[in-house]
Amino acid sequence: MPVGESNPLVLVYHIDASDRISRVNAAWTEFARNNGGEALLPERVLGQNLLLAITDVTERELYVRMIRRARTGRPVQFHYRCDAPDRRRTFAMEIRAVGGGEVEFVSTLRHEEPRASVALLQGDEVRDDRLLRVCSWCQQVALTENTWVPVEEAVELLHLLEAETFPRLTHGICESCRAKWEQTDRASPAR
Ligand SMILES: [Zn+2]
């Protein structure tokens, strides 16, 4: 997928007043298809409740608050990482109300760079029963409850390449991303 300054990749989805995914744009579908995101194709996500699809409690609470904030006319903006095994990507997200309780989520690709492919992130690797938490926003990996490091570092520190199988990945929000959001939220409180 070409990434040009003049034509940035913009992924859009909407939720209706009941938080169900009501629309995705063509770029969303193409991105899902090109990145092994079969679970994110329109036939799988349309009509699904966005909040029920978020398994991590902290992340779900954050989304509840961001959506509530957007519905009161205060758009939410933040940057997040959406990496592929062989590339780092930074997206800018804007969440805003578009009327009738509907909320629009717009992700614009801001930066993309290649890296040596990280096997831990590849979908076809054999997994064991260990669970590793990845921050949904910065893609850092939890070494302990409160220590998060970039994925490449985690692979090394946890000696992940020495075992025959990889841990399974689960998502959450790290301390630092949560703090950043709290700060942003406080900076422009409800009118
Ligand atoms: Zn994070």
Can you give a write-up of this model?
The chain is of the alpha+beta class and 191 residues long. The chain has two domains: 10-117, Beta-Lactamase, CATH 3.30.450; 119-170, no CATH class. 25% of the residues lie in helices and 32% in strands. It contains five helices and nine strands. It has helices at 26-34, 42-45, 57-71, 151-157, 175-187; strands at 10-15, 21-24, 76-81, 87-99, 102-114, 127-135, 141-142, 148-149, 166-172. A five-stranded antiparallel sheet has the order 2-1-5-4-3. Strand 1 (10-15) and strand 2 form a beta hairpin. The N and C termini lie far apart (41 Å). The structure holds zinc ion. Zinc ion binds next to helix 5.
Give me the side-by-side strand order of the main sheet: 2-1-5-4-3
Low-confidence sequence ranges: none
- Rg, please? 17 Å
Number of helices, where a helix is a run of at least 4 consecutive DSSP H or I residues: 5
CATH topology of the largest domain: Beta-Lactamase
